[in-house]
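Q: How would the structure tokens look for this protein?
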Amino acid sequence: MKNATIYTIGIGTGCSDEFIEHVARLGNGQFELISDNEEMNVKIISLLKASLTPMLRDVALSYDQNIVEFLVPDPETLQFVKINEPLNFFVFLNKKFQNDKETTFVLSYENSNENRTIQETLVCKINDSMVTNNLIHKFGFYKLLTHLIKSMKKKTNLICLASKLKISNKIKRN
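A: Here is the predicted structure in token form.
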């Protein structure tokens, strides 16, 4: 089930909302909760559309490991990504980058529509003023925090994010 995605539906007050949501998140899918007297067509069609969305599989990011201090998320933890969803990598570079002032990232993935591997190259360059004012670090940290805040609408999202980042033992559960 390497390439499987799990979508779940909870119907009525007798289902466990937490279980329905948890299974969908673990399976990199989506979930819908439908109350007893609620019309279910719209929610089921929404899940069907999501399940038919093409995926990017075997996502990998190549980079100079001597320059990258850490990277979030770890590309090895990404099983697949929906084509219409943004894929953000937050890269924190060490002081060696300030000396080199240039590094290259190569993103490769398989497009499920085309069944072929695609590679995209990004060359990252900085100038002296960016280094002097720490602009690149401030901007990167700001973008990471903004992304985390948007991701943490519910405590469950925080726990899922923490487990993906392998820092769950650092979060106190209330």
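The chain is about 35% helix and 30% strand.

The first helix runs from residue 17 to 26.

Upvote if useful.
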